[in-house]
């Protein structure tokens, strides 16, 4: 299944009839809060099976996943996934490894948030995304507001950093 930039993989509140193995590309996952705030809280990348919170048991989608570039995913019917989980002993280890990889990713993201200056945080995010972005600029994928949410600064700070790198 191919999705192009801006197309939705799943929406917040969806019943998640499928899980998805990300084959290529990137997705941003946003959550709309009751007060109207939209928050970018995750980036999905190749090798992941998502939604993470539904790997062991079904739960509606916590956020909305939108393709940041041309991306390929393999849909996996949830019924089939959960049947395999109960019938195949190795499936639990597969899921544990998927979750371990995501925990390690989140640890890296936390490290990036706690490093020195906002400029250093922006550089670390840019370097990480370059592994998947195929040479495209960070701002081709994310708004300044979203970049700010990922590095823990206001949009205005991101704007300043992008205009004057190194300051």
From TrEMBL:
PANTHER family: CRP FAMILY TRANSCRIPTIONAL REGULATORY PROTEIN, HTH-TYPE TRANSCRIPTIONAL REGULATOR ARCR. CDD domains: CAP_ED. It comes from the Bacteria. The keyword Transcription regulation applies. PROSITE patterns: CNMP_BINDING_3. Keywords: Activator, DNA-binding, Transcription, Transcription regulation. One of its GO terms (molecular function) is DNA-binding transcription factor activity. Residues 1-74 form the Cyclic nucleotide-binding domain. This is Crp/Fnr family transcriptional regulator. GO terms for cellular component: cytosol. InterPro entries: cNMP-bd_dom, cNMP-bd_dom_sf, Env_Response_Regulators, HTH_CRP, RmlC-like_jellyroll, WH_DNA-bd_sf. The keyword Protein transport does not apply. It comes from Paenibacillus albidus.
């Amino acid at each position: 299944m191919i999705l192009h930039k801006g197309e939705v993989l799943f929406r917040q509140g969806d019943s998640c009839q499928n899980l998805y193995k990300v084959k290529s590309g990137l997705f941003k996952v946003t959550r709309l809060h009751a007060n109207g705030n939209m928050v970018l809280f995750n980036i999905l990348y190749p090798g992941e099976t998502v939604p993470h919170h539904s790997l062991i048991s079904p739960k509606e989608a916590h956020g909305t996943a939108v393709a940041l570039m041309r991306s390929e995913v393999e849909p996996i019917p949830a019924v089939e996934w959960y049947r395999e989980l109960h019938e195949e002993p190795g499936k639990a280890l597969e899921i544990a490894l998927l979750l371990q990889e995501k925990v390690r990713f989140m640890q890296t993201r936390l490290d990036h948030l706690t490093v020195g200056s906002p400029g250093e945080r922006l550089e670390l995010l840019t370097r990480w995304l370059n592994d998947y972005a195929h040479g495209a600029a960070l701002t081709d994928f994310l708004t300044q507001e979203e970049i700010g949410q990922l590095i823990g600064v206001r949009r205005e700070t991101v704007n300043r950093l992008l205009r004057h790198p190194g300051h």
